[in-house]
């Protein structure tokens, strides 16, 4: 399958992350699955006139297109013209190009949370009118209408993440190449379930602290970051702590909170990212699927049962108290 | 006279969106206009937010300079609070930042810049077969080796910073994760592996022998590894005779450590080095699609002209230092830091080759710094101090991204961000004309470039533009 990759209004970080794919490297990984880039703005040789000819060929249907990947949000401003991002050399907005090329593609893949839902490019007052390819934040319907289906019949596949994990992108593309990604393999926000059916909380190294609600009070401390430091890993879709990033890291492993970057509107949490909003001293926002009363009951019980080791380590920047050893048989 | 106009775009293998308009006369560029055709409005987004949110949002300006943005935001907040990070935190932040910069240099060299030499247009050149083997886009053996080495050294960022890009590990008080002795030996082994890559692939010799090259001739005459192949090609294509910038090199100084910056700050012109006084910075809006007056970034604003009126032709503002253009980047950094080969090259004149050579020198020198810093980490120390951000105040954060000088200027009022201005390296290098009509550095560098009669996307123009390693997403932000 061939891939046309467009970088609309984003930071390019999902491509940079993609280049971190390992075992094998990104080129061999995609190549081995029969995937090749028709054109990629950061990687391909062709520039300028060659690219304009290629885009024209895809638009006219002369060049068949299997997968259109869009990285970055779609800018509608100013005044609905899309001119805050002109595709250079073409005199046309990126919004216009994406709307024109998407129906030509067998599959459309939105790469990253900007492309899926608007993402950080739509933060604050959303100065440039950023929206996603098929969503505007939580609302279906973006640069393409909610009813849009690519030639394959699938909606836009939303590989959300800020940035995306390289494997989320390569595995989505490889599943498409293998004919093994159906609409039922996507969640209700059109994210591939193979990573979105996990929570960032799963395999988080702070799980024991979470069990006892033994909380870090400041960044750099080892405790759970849910109570004070804005962590929403218990509500965030992603296998970050199962899969690991860049050789095994993750946000929570590095001591800063999960900000739910795979979700629509994560860019506007309505509170500072590293502070947990509270009501009457109790954090708002509970773990997914958890009844509030049970959570409160369990939390108060487990807090009372917190071992000294866990309580002390929670507010330290390294393990101060190691687990005690069971004494052997005498 | 034979005159024509060209619009070069989509201009790929630069980070982000770039369009270059050329007036060509008698086979040479008579005037060039650099347009940054993407506006997102990060400076407007920041207003009203909690100051610490800058640490989450500004790295997302750019996926290739993400840690640089993070470090600049952290430095600006620290300046507003009037505190420095914990000393060991500074060292870890320097490691994170240096790895990003080295990765960016190698990405540029292998994936962005040298891919052009594999073009069929150069078939028949003595070096072409080797260039095809090493540098062909996405296929070359050098491109593959680069992405593998890059992915592996980024394990250090995974370990210390959780992930790359967009880590939140760097904070005004230090870093969020205290490395252990185990982490240190693991990082040392990752660096040893990276050294093998540099020595077998990039330099074909010990890292020290490249870092310590003492003369310009020894540098441009380097004949080993992919660096040697590049020097061969550069000589044949006369990259040393094209793409002259202003010849004024600015660096804010890279990697702040308790005992100073690892690479010095300064402004170099014609052999004379002086301190950079950031009070002399002004952003000129005369040819940017922006409303407002020329201002210092601490007082600047971002108010886009939605009608995109003439004579403006770019979303990029035009920063000037003391009213003049300056060039920034790895070569500038090495000149300002006084590397003898870089200084000698700068004395011979500005050109495209120097910019690439500067990056290669810096890759070698940074490997040595990284090895030292990792060896020096004291795991028993504190890596983060407590910092209270002020309710009212302002701060300037100055760092060196891979592409050069990056500054953040924050103003805090009533505990919220009241003003946030950013000047990125490529804002300097790819700025449009100013009120006096003076072209930005790349616009000036393109004047005189040779354009073949049958070319609509001239190769010399591509080489010159890419020699700056522009990051267009940072440029306008």
UniProtKB/TrEMBL annotation, chain A:
Name of the top EC class for this enzyme: oxidoreductase
The EC number(s) this enzyme carries: 1.12.99.6
GO molecular function, one term: 3 iron, 4 sulfur cluster binding
Biological process terms in GO annotation: anaerobic respiration
Cross-referenced InterPro entries: Cytochrome-c3_hydrogenase_C, NADH_UbQ_OxRdtase-like_20kDa, NiFe-Hase_small_C_sf, NiFe_Hase_small_N_sf, NiFe_hydrogenase_ssu
Positions with a binding annotation for [4Fe-4S] cluster 2: 201, 204, 224, 231
Keyword line: 3Fe-4S, 4Fe-4S, Cell membrane, Iron, Iron-sulfur, Membrane, Metal-binding, Oxidoreductase, Signal
Primary site of residence: other
GO cellular component: [Ni-Fe] hydrogenase complex; cell envelope; ferredoxin hydrogenase complex; membrane
Matches recorded under Pfam families: NiFe_hyd_SSU_C (PF14720), Oxidored_q6 (PF01058)
Location relative to the cell: Cell envelope
Domain NADH:ubiquinone oxidoreductase-like 20kDa subunit: residue ranges: 11-175
Name of the protein: hydrogenase (acceptor)
Species name: Litoreibacter roseus
Taxonomic classification: Bacteria, Pseudomonadati, Pseudomonadota, Alphaproteobacteria, Rhodobacterales
This protein's encoding gene: hupU
From TrEMBL, chain B:
Gene3D superfamilies from the UniProt entry: Cytochrome-c3 Hydrogenase, chain B (1.10.645.10)
A GO term for molecular function: ferredoxin hydrogenase activity
Pfam families: NiFeSe_Hases
Name used for this protein in its record: Hydrogenase large subunit
Residues engaged in binding Ni(2+): 65, 471
Keyword Iron assigned: yes
Originating organism: Litoreibacter roseus
GO CC annotation: cell envelope
Residues that, per the record, bind Mg(2+): 43, 62, 422, 477
Family under the similarity heading: Belongs to the [NiFe]/[NiFeSe] hydrogenase large subunit family.
Subcellular location: Cell envelope
Cofactors named for this entry: Ni(2+); Fe cation
Ranges in a coiled coil: none
């Amino acid at each position: 399958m061939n891939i046309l990759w467009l970088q609309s209004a984003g930071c390019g970080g999902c491509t940079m992350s993609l280049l971190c794919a390992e075992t094998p490297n990104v080129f061999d990984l995609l190549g081995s699955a029969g995937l090749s880039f028709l054109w990629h703005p950061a990687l391909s040789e062709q520039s300028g006139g060659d690219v304009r000819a290629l885009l024209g060929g895809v638009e006219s249907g002369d060049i068949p297109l299997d997968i259109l990947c869009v990285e970055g949000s779609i800018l509608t401003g100013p005044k609905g013209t899309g001119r805050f991002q002109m595709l250079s050399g073409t005199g046309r907005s990126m919004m216009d190009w994406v709307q024109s090329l998407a129906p030509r593609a067998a599959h459309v893949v939105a790469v990253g949370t900007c492309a899926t839902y608007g993402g950080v490019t739509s933060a604050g007052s959303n100065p440039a009118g950023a929206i996603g390819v098929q969503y505007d934040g939580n609302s279906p319907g973006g640069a393409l209408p909610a009813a849009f289906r690519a030639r394959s019949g699938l909606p836009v596949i939303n590989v959300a993440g800020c940035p995306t994990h390289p494997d989320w992108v390569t595995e989505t593309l490889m599943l498409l190449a293998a004919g093994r990604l159906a609409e039922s393999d996507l969640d209700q926000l059109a994210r591939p379930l193979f990573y979105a059916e996990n929570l960032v909380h799963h395999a988080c190294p702070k799980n024991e602290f979470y069990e006892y609600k033994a909380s870090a009070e400041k960044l750099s401390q080892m405790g759970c970051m849910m109570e004070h430091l804005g962590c929403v890993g218990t509500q965030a879709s992603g296998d970050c702590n199962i899969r690991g990033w860049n050789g095994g890291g993750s946000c929570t492993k590095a001591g800063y909170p999960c900000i739910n970057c795979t979700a629509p509107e994560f860019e506007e949490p309505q509170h500072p990212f590293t502070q947990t909003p509270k009501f009457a001293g109790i954090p708002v926002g509970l773990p997914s699927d958890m009844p509030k009363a049970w959570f409160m009951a369990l939390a108060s019980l487990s807090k009372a049962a917190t071992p000294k080791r866990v309580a002390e380590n929670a507010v330290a920047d390294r393990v101060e108290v190691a687990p005690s050893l069971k004494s052997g048989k005498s | 006279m034979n005159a024509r106009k060209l619009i070069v775009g989509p201009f790929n293998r630069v980070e982000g969106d770039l369009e270059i308009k050329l007036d060509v006369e008698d086979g040479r560029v008579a005037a060039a206009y650099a347009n940054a055709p993407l506006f997102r409005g990060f400076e407007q987004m920041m207003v009203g937010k909690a100051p610490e949110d800058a640490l989450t949002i500004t790295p997302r300006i750019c996926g290739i300079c993400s840690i640089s943005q993070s470090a600049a935001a952290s430095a600006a907040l620290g300046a507003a609070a009037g505190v420095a990070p914990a000393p060991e935190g500074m060292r870890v932040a320097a490691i994170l930042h240096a790895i990003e910069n080295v990765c960016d240099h190698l990405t540029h060299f292998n994936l962005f810049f040298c891919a052009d030499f594999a073009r069929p247009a150069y078939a028949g050149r003595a070096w072409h077969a080797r260039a095809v083997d090493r540098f062909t886009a996405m296929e070359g053996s050098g491109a593959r080796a680069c992405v593998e080495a890059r992915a592996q050294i980024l394990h250090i960022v995974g370990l210390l910073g959780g992930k790359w890009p967009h880590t939140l590990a760097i904070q005004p008080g230090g870093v969020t994760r205290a490395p252990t002795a185990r982490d240190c030996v693991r990082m040392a082994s990752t660096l040893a592996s990276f050294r093998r890559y540099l020595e077998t692939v990039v330099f074909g010799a010990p890292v020290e022998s490249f870092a310590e090259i003492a003369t310009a001739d020894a540098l441009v005459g380097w004949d080993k590894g992919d660096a040697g192949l590049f020097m061969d090609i550069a000589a044949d294509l006369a990259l040393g005779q094209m793409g002259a910038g202003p010849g004024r090199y600015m660096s804010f100084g890279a990697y702040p450590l308790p005992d100073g910056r690892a690479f010095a700050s300064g402004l170099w012109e014609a052999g004379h080095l002086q301190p950079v006084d950031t009070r002399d910075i002004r952003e000129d809006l005369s040819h940017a699609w922006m409303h407002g007056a020329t201002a210092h970034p601490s007082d600047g604003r971002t108010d886009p002209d939605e009608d995109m009126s003439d004579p403006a032709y770019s979303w990029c503002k035009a920063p000037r230092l003391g009213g003049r253009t300056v060039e920034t980047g790895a070569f500038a950094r090495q000149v300002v830091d006084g590397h003898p080969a870089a200084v000698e090259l700068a004395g011979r004149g500005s050109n495209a080759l120097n910019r690439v050579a500067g990056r290669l020198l810096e890759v070698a020198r940074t490997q040595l710094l990284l090895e030292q810093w990792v060896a020096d980490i004291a795991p028993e120390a504190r890596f983060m101090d407590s910092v209270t951000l002020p309710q009212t105040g302002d701060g300037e954060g100055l760092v060196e991204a891979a592409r050069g000088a990056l500054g953040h200027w924050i103003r805090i009022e009533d505990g919220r961000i009241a003003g946030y201005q950013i000047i990125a390296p490529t804002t300097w290098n790819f700025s449009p004309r100013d009120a006096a009509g003076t072209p930005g550095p790349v616009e000036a560098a393109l004047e005189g470039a040779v354009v073949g009669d049958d070319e609509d996307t001239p190769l010399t123009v591509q080489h010159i533009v890419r020699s700056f390693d522009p990051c267009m997403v940072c440029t306008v932000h």
